[in-house]
Amino acid sequence: MADHTTIKKVAVLGAGNMGAGIAGQVANAGLPVLLLDVTREAAERGKQDLFKRKPAPLMSAAAADLIETGGFDQDLPRLAEADWIVEVVVERLPVKQALFERVERVRRPGSIVSSNTSGIRLSEITAGLPASFAADFCITHFFNPPRYMGLLELIAGPATRPDAVDTLRAFCTVQLGKEVVDARDTPSFIGNRIGILAMLAGVRAAQRHGLTVEQADAVAGKPIGWPGTGVFGLIDLVGLDVLADVARNMQSQLPAGDPAHPLLELPPLLKTLLERGWIGRKAGGGFYRMTADKQREALDLSTLEYRPAQKVDLASAKARGPKDVLAGDDAGARFAADMLGYTLAYTATVASEIAGDVRAIDTAMREGYSWRAGPFELLDEIGLAGFVERLAAAGEPVPALLQKAQATGDGRFYREEADGPEYLGFDGAYHAAPSAAGTLAVADLRRAGKPVLGNASASLWDMGDGVALLEFHTKMNALDEFSVEAMELTLDRVGRDFQALVIGSDAPHFCAGANLKRMLDAARAGDFTFLDGFIDGLQHALMGFKYAPFPVVGAPRGLALGGGCEVLLHCNVLQAHAELNAGLVELRVGLLPAGGGTKEMTLRHLDAGVERGFDLVVGSVTSSSAADARAMRVLTDYCAITMHRRRVLADAKALARRMVGAYAPARPAVVNLPGPAGRAALEARVAPQVEAGKMTAHDAVVASHIAAVMSGGAGGEVTEHDLLRLEREHFLELLRLPPSQARMEHMLATGKPLRN
Question: pTM of the predicted model, to two decimals?
Fold first, then answer.
């Protein structure tokens, strides 16, 4: 991989929603960024807007300190300071070219320049500009919002320096955490070329089969692996005006014979909504809207009037996957077959025109449109033979790429071989699909051999170089008695055969906590002996990690809640994904953290008083980022942050290797705590919130138990094991209470906390 560290400062031209968002993501990565707009005031407004947006573009308020602002007239010469200049102004070719002429006069030779255009082709932008500019220029198409959307489409021209492209690809991958996809210089590139067509196909198919907007979105969501917004909800989110602009741009740029043209002409329904200004959420409504009293309404597609949103009762909306949807025979199944038939056939038709291989297209749709599976992965899932049969039965042409896939004998675009995964190339042959440089996955270890040890809930793997990996693999990686057993076996095995341990997995989430159903069932059965043993075993295992004779590195990404957060609190150091959502949330289910979490939040906040730790536990506060988790002291100063989620395990292994030799376990803590007086002081923090209606009566009960632990019981000199004993005792007391059991049951049934 190219040296991404050569980019040390970035300049962003344009402080609108997207430009400021890109500047914010650069600042999130810890790099200084110069944000310029027409005036200094406009640039500063763009920066300040970052604090108001939701979801938050910044991972911490401190990141904004890395953003300097300025105006084009006064500050454009400062572009000479930047290693990468990214333009994000209005989508008008003359405006972009005029700005780039000015940029070329002041930038440092060899600095990289890019445009964030979503549809203007690179060849059009560079026309008439100097060869020196074209050599350093490419397109970097971020998806909005830049912090949260994983995709970045990278488009190079025939004159672009390869080393510039390699450097930018490496920087955007490692520093900005993006899934960089190389796209060809074609209209709307990959993501929007396919995504816009899919939305328009969905609108026409819904009307053709007489579906309501709710029915269409219910089918075109989880059942087929698309986001819950479906088709109409996604148009509301993106904005009908934006969709129309992209469609018009594609119409003007695509060759006359492109099969997308009939679909790109907006249907009367969409034209009417545009005329009325019903363009989506930003206008107060589109296909859906919220009334003044917060009631959701949907647009009736026949009358074009709003009515209360309706429940969907279609078998296809309850299907477990796209194959099941297409096997159905109701209107929703016919709608899905129509929409997917067009989308997948069109993708196969233009695939070699827009990308270098099918993997790039699948990645673009997963990361840019949040599809669970990309188009070619979807074809493998639903079965290519059946899909082709449906095309033929409908009298539609079968794209040449699908014919090649059928001719291979495998009839698949992806396959697993002894030497690793392969994908079908546009040449009709299979090619190796190795993991990207700097990444490591449990799937790679699984292909190479068997786990060192394991059971139904967890496995221990050999990562190589003396480092072991403990992987949880239950639903949401929830902890149960088998997880605890695996932790205890891991401590023994790593101590004998390895030099370091990493805890992590390929799953989207690190661990959602303890198995709530298992605990509730045991409590209602009166099996408190099991529960006491489970908590005691969890505490013993986590203390084993904390004071192991070898370094233990937590590698979390996604959720690390409750017991999952407690695992992290007992690792020696963390290599965390930047988007870490961690916290001790047990109060929401009427309990307290009893795997050492209450203990750790006590110890980690002693220097400034335990009140801050108490507030975090009682408030069930969760981090919105790894930087936020550092402020909560879930991460310590020694912990590290990885921006790209698929690099977390590799970075964690490297960190573990660096620790070997220099690592020495700490000594268990002994502290002085205030006892009953301290408990009363902590309880006093809760009383006003109960009186104000911000906390409930049972919240106060749970908070009192938390206060008892964090004040050290009777007080005085207290060891970590004393705090663990207090945790266990108070946890079991709470678990016996009907209001706590009611909270647990409600969470299991609804996924939401019960405020009793």
Answer: 0.94
